[in-house]
Design brief:
Strand order of the largest sheet: 7-10-11-16-15-14-13-12
Low-confidence stretches: none
Number of strands: 16
Number of helices: 14
Largest sheet: 8 strands, mixed
Radius of gyration: 27 Å
Strand content: 15-25%
Order of helices and strands: EHEEEHEEHHEEEHEEHHHEHHEEEHHEHH
Helix content: 25-40%
Shape: elongated
């Protein structure tokens, strides 16, 4: 047959245009998701990795050779197909391809684990090298990519400078001691650097000096915590978004957080409509309402002290918390945060002015001498989503705090930033993987990461 073929077309191009102008026949390569036939007509669901939705390939019994070739195709195989592009506006999909020729590019063994049935997330974690082909993860990792771009676009469009902070460091930013040591083999494991070093827990301390040169900066990269916590929200390796803004206080910081969160939600909804509809239908029925509620809300602000008073009153009125011992100075648990955001504010809220004892050394001491200029953004369904603070810019106060904690040695360079042209500045951190959990409704951090690293588990 003499026909004009559009070679090496992508499913995304067809889906966006509806039809490739001037071509009735296309050549497409991809992977078989399913294959079924009823004895006279068969259907292959094909995906080439460029679009969330599959394309249906139709093969008919009236061409015995093509029919037998197609019928033998297994789920998971890589194929190249040539066929007629047919619009089907009234059908489940807006177009399909009638097969005229088919070539197997990669066979698939009989024990391929992703056959057409529901698989548990636990099972799919055991085959992390194959799970991107499953619908949930195919959607999830595209959203992860798009959310990454949203982060960069948000900051780049506002003139922020992207700083690559080190992975190997000699400091523990949070001071919790939950770090992974970096050692070399041999008699002296610390011989290479001549001192104790570890994997970074945060890029904040290293990005702050750049804010005092470029004004507005951000770092976005992997961080590591040696927390032996077997929970759905903890991983040993995860990514952090950490901007820093100079000549800014806590209010400026909260304004930027609100703007950033709303921008990212809107960007993902606009650029991943099919994937987000999938999550709303299959993972979290209330997802769209929750995200749109945040988009259309003004983020409220409440002091930590006010929140404690509210929680104490809630216990008096019979509300059941697992931790009922509510007192000023405690570190709020997720159940307390969710009560405030879901039952009291009924929307996003910043808790501010936390007791200095439960926050990091670099946070600015408030005039009351008891609290620091810190904020946590709480959102319904999750609790804490973002944490930030105004940094302590006063040299003497910062040094005294660091001396008290015995962490000044090795961080003299950090103190220098207060001695040489220091100014007020602020910043925040968003756990990227937890943000992705919030945006998709997926409730385990092990599923948002391509190859998760958690305690007692590192298969890959």
């Amino acid at each position: 047959m003499d026909y004009k073929v559009m070679s090496d077309i992508e499913l995304r191009q067809i889906a966006l245009s509806g039809k490739i102008k001037g071509y009735e026949f296309v050549e497409l390569s991809g992977w078989v998701r399913t294959n079924r036939d009823n004895g006279s007509i068969g259907f292959i669901e094909l995906n080439d990795g460029t679009h969330f939705l599959n394309v249906q390939l139709v093969y008919l019994k009236d061409n015995e050779t093509i029919y037998n070739t197609c019928k033998a195709i297994r789920t998971g195989e890589a194929i190249k197909v040539k066929g007629e592009l047919v619009l089907t506006p009234g059908g489940k999909q807006s177009f399909e391809i009638r097969v005229h020729a088919l070539e197997v590019l990669g066979t698939c063994d009989d024990d391929y684990p992703l056959q057409k049935k529901r698989h548990s997330f636990e099972f799919l974690r055991e085959i992390a090298h194959l799970r991107p082909r499953a619908n949930t993860f195919y959607a999830l990792y595209r959203v992860r990519s798009v959310l990454s771009m949203a982060i960069h676009r948000f900051f780049q469009d506002r003139g922020f400078v992207y700083v690559h902070t080190p992975i190997i460091t000699s400091n523990d930013c949070e001071g919790a001691g939950q770090v992974f040591d970096v050692v070399t083999q041999g008699k002296d494991p610390f011989a290479f650097f001549k001192q104790h070093v570890n994997l970074t827990v945060s890029g904040q301390l290293h990005v702050e000096p750049f804010a005092l040169a470029f004004k507005n900066v951000y770092t976005f990269g992997p961080t590591f915590r040696a927390e032996n916590s077997n929970t759905p929200r903890h991983a040993a390796e995860f990514w952090m978004i950490e901007p820093e803004i100079a000549f800014a206080d806590l209010n400026d910081d909260m304004n930027l957080i609100e703007e950033c969160v709303k921008y990212c939600i809107e960007y993902v909804l606009s650029n991943c409509p099919d994937e987000m509809n999938f999550f709303a239908n299959m993972i979290d029925k209330g997802l769209m309402d929750r995200l749109n509620h945040v988009l259309n809300s003004e983020f409220k602000r409440m002091t930590y002290t006010q929140a404690i008073d509210i929680l104490i009153e809630a216990v008096k009125n019979g509300h059941e918390f697992e931790n009922k011992n509510i007192e000023w100075g405690m570190d709020l648990q997720s159940e307390h945060e969710r009560y405030v955001t879901e039952h009291v504010v009924k929307g996003p809220v910043f808790l501010i002015d936390y007791p200095k004892e439960i926050k990091a050394f670099y946070m600015r001491l408030n005039d009351d001498g008891k609290t620091v200029a810190a904020c946590d953004l709480l959102v319904p369904g999750v609790g804490e989503l973002v944490g930030g603070s105004q940094r302590e810019e006063r040299y003497e106060l910062l040094k005294a705090k660091m001396d008290e904690m015995n962490i000044s040695k090795g961080l003299e360079w950090y103190l220098d930033t207060r001695r040489y042209g220091g100014c007020k500045h602020a910043g925040f951190g968003i756990g990227f993987d937890r943000f992705l959990m919030y945006l998709t409704g997926v409730n385990n951090i092990r599923d948002t990461e391509p190859f998760p690293r958690t305690a007692n588990s590192i298969k890959y």
